[in-house]
Design brief:
The chain has 13 helices and 17 strands. The radius of gyration is 60 Å and the shape is rod-shaped. Strands 1, 2, 3, 4, 5 and 6 form a six-stranded antiparallel sheet that branches. The chain has a five-stranded mixed sheet with strand order 12-14-15-17-16, covered by helices on one side. Strands 8-7-10-9 form a four-stranded antiparallel sheet, with helices on one face. Helix 2 packs across helix 7 and helix 10 runs parallel beside helix 11. By secondary structure, the protein is an alpha+beta fold. A hairpin with a 4-residue loop joins strand 9 and strand 10. It has two domains: 288 residues, CHASE domain (Beta-Lactamase, 2-Layer Sandwich), CATH 3.30.450; 225 residues, 2-Layer Sandwich (Heat Shock Protein 90), CATH 3.30.565.10.
Length: 567
């Protein structure tokens, strides 16, 4: 039980100590877990996409190699047949090609051709043969310049189409790329593909390639090159035929005759932008590069987006829940503080009341003692005591209205001079800035003003028509106000006069309370009194003082405290 209670207290302390940080921290923790989950999901998605991309690249590469192997098989068969023939007439070659029964696996090629070796002394004989078997005007071209040991012109190319006829008579050995492939095919005695070339029968320079298979004839000393069986391929059509077997789907596919460089590009399909997979492809003894590229995903996967949304919802709900718990904890804490504050206020009120009662009783005792000492008869004593206690009561009323806070000077002076200010046979002027005094200082000023007003009503300016009393005050320092009482228009003040109670009260009691000297002059034209009063905040009961922004007044401590917390 104790452990459980301690945990609750610790949790509540955290909620109260960090009312705004704790919900944010919890939100950030949940979002951190969400981000880590999204990263893990994305890595899994990336791995799966990479595996899928790799698998698709391998499948397309296999389809391309099957296409090339099928072509190589046909060329091997033709080479084996033609190696046994002394001459290769056109009719026999047509029969051979027709009996191959080329099926759909051979799509993408331009046909199957025969290119015999023509040595320099056989050029005229070759041209005469082409005049008999080919359209008119077909001759060996370009004409041999003597730099090559022989020529390898296109002799036959089936099927017999208008496009294929444009290639007849072309010396393929005169072109460097084709010549390199033929030399390699003769050296290895294997079908060999060229790098990227432009087919002679194409007028729009579509990228293509040619596969050669050497045909060797026996001689007494060995074997001699007789010619080449070959197949020309349109590269885009060759790639498209492979993709018919293995669909690329949304992937982009590019085929290069070597490195994946723009000038080596043979064919491409689709638009990519994402990750890519590269696969080496062997096309008739020639290593090529197949590149398969995924489309640009452009963002997170669906599962990642769902995880983020779910994480945001959970984090927001938890943050809201913690915020509500924090709000409740703050309100509980505010209630406790309010009750503690009320208890402190009650104790302070008790101390303040004791303090005020003692001060008031001390003032009353002093007034009684001085009044008795100066009174000649009982009625005089009663009248003097009544007026002075009424002055104390009037000032107490002002302090009660201000809840024993600071009281304006004008209010204190008006309370004592109000009965005289309404008379029409004399004039009372009160003027000065708005300055507020502490409770004790206000009581002292009230007593002093009452004594001065009583003396003026009996003997001075307020005792006859035409009299004038002015009370002016001004700040002479940041925390010091100077109050001047001045009488004029009354009876002349005698030079010799006895010392009265008012003089003693002002010069002794009031000066002692204010802790500053009081200047009291009985000039011939009227009494003049100057009081210097400190402007200070009431210290014995500061909690009741009228507060500035940010302080709490006891009557509304709890509501204001709660409003401050909510802000």
């Amino acid at each position: 039980m104790e452990n459980g209670s301690g945990d609750r207290i610790s949790t509540k302390r955290w909620l109260v100590s960090f009312p705004r940080a704790l919900p944010i921290v919890i939100f950030l923790l949940i979002m951190a877990v969400t981000v880590l989950s999204v990263v893990a999901i994305q890595r899994g998605e990336d791995s799966r996409a990479a595996a899928q991309l790799r698998s698709r690249a391998m499948a397309i590469a296999a389809a391309l190699e099957r296409r090339a192997n099928s072509s190589s098989a046909y060329l091997r068969a033709g080479a084996a047949l033609l190696a046994t023939q002394d001459n290769v007439p056109l009719s026999q070659f047509r029969t051979f090609v027709s009996e191959l029964r080329l099926d759909a696996d051979y799509r993408g090629h331009e046909g199957i051709g025969w290119a015999q070796v023509v040595r320099p002394d056989q050029v005229d004989e070759f041209n005469e043969m082409m005049q008999r078997t080919a359209p008119e005007g077909v001759r060996l071209h370009p004409w041999p310049d003597g730099s090559q040991p022989f020529s390898v012109p296109v002799t036959y190319l089936q099927p017999d189409t208008e496009r294929n006829r444009r290639a007849l008579g072309f010396d393929m050995f005169s072109e460097p790329v084709r010549r390199a492939a033929m030399i390699e095919a003769e050296r290895t005695y294997r079908p060999t593909a060229t790098d990227r070339v432009s087919l002679i029968q194409d007028t729009d320079s579509v990228p293509g390639f040619v596969i050669y298979m050497p045909v060797l004839e026996p001689t007494p000393t060995g074997r001699r090159l007789k010619g080449f069986m070959y197949s020309p391929f349109n590269a885009p059509a060759f790639l498209a035929s492979a993709l018919e077997l293995e669909e690329a789907g949304a992937f982009a596919v590019r085929l290069y005759d070597g490195d994946a460089q723009p000038d080596h590009l043979l064919a491409s399909f689709g638009e990519g932008g994402g990750r890519s997979a590269t696969e080496l492809v062997s096309i008739a003894n020639n290593p090529w590069v197949l590149q398969v590229e995924s489309p640009d995903a452009g963002g997170l996967s669906g599962l990642s987006m769902a995880t983020i949304i779910f994480g945001l919802l959970v984090a927001s709900l938890l943050m809201l829940l913690v915020r509500m718990l924090t709000q409740q904890a703050l309100e509980d804490e505010a209630s406790l503080q309010w009750f503690e504050e009320q208890a402190s206020i009650r104790m302070s009120l008790t101390r303040e009341l004791n303090h005020r009662v003692k001060n008031t009783l001390a003032n009353v005792l002093s007034i009684i003692a001085l009044t008795r000492r100066r009174a000649a008869e009982l009625n005089e004593f009663a009248d003097g005591l009544d007026g002075r206690i009424r002055a104390l009561s009037a000032t107490h009323d002002l302090l009660t209205q201000s809840e024993w806070g600071t009281t304006p000077i004008l209010s204190v002076v008006e309370a004592e001079l109000l009965p005289y200010a309404q008379a029409s046979d004399h004039e009372v002027e009160m003027r000065g800035p708005h300055i507020e005094l502490a409770p004790n200082d206000a009581l002292s000023l009230g007593l002093a003003t009452h004594e001065l007003a009583t003396n003026a009503a009996k003997y001075g300016a307020l005792s006859q028509p035409g009299g004038r009393v002015t009370v002016h005050w001004r700040l002479v320092a940041d925390a010091l106000v100077r109050i001047e009482w001045k009488e004029s228009g009354g009876p002349p003040v005698p030079p010799k006069r006895g010392r009265g109670f008012g003089t003693d009260l002002i010069e002794r009691i009031v000066a002692a309370e204010l802790k500053t000297p009081v200047k009291l002059d009985f000039e011939p034209d009227g009494v003049r009194c100057v009081l210097t009063i400190p402007v200070r905040q009431p210290t014995p009961f500061a909690i009741r003082a009228k507060s500035g922004p940010g302080q709490v007044e006891f009557k509304s401590a709890l509501p204001r405290y709660l409003r401050r917390i909510r802000r």
